[in-house]
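re the bet — no i am not wrong, look at it urself. input seq straight from the record:
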Amino acid sequence: MRRLLPALFPVLLLVVVAACGGGGPDRDELILATTTSTMDSGLLDVLIPAFEEESGYRVTPVAVGSGQALELGRRGEADVLLVHAPEAEERFMAEGHGVDRRLVMHNDFVIVGPPEDPAGARAAAATREVLSRIAAAGARFISRGDDSGTHQLERALWQAAGIDPEGEAWYVVSGQGMGATLGVANERRGYTLTDRATYLALRDRLDLEILHQGDPVLRNVYHVIQVDPSKNDRVNAEGAQAFAEFLVGERAQEIIGEFGRDRFGEPLFTPDAGKDEADLR
């Protein structure tokens, strides 16, 4: 396994933001810890200005993997989280770090790779077969390796396929977000697991194709979580609640349901506020 230099800028930015805060919290400012997919897809570029205009808050987004976003929440270094790692989120809530968790939206994951498809992924019916073919061929696979929601799903998929890729020469860890990992896969002519939205947003820059999709195990669900203010007296509980209510409100759900339609002919996310989560499984 080869590991590339991780992208640490978002975390360093948050440290600077926290360090420069002085005394008490500025109740007009809100720190959102979120996934790189919501940033790389461009969705936050639409949602955040709409929220700021409606609420008067100023939002600082910190785009990291879901695992890192949840850890920031544990430390009280973010006010609100927008993440897509359901099992890790449930642990976060059970540990008492969040005061509310709401369903926001979903899309799906796909496996992309070079058009020549050296592992024959296109011919596989199930995701576990795709991974078995990649491993058998020794075809390069690029993992985020960052404990993001995408990486957590990837690990579960390898386990379901009965394969441990760690230490294999063909298994490359980028240690970076989704957009950067797609760039590495493109440069290295490798396969990777990606959310559909980020892939479509960057598709014009990539020579990668969707080679596998549609398996129910590839569903990608996002929740908004308000951080428990008892974790840090700087947590902006009122702002977090306002942002969470905005995301599940009519205006944001309409934005989510239309985002990407003009460019791709279909929305990149499906709004889910108010739905029964069991229906998404």
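see?? The chain has twelve helices and eleven strands. told u. also The longest strand covers residues 98-113. so pay up
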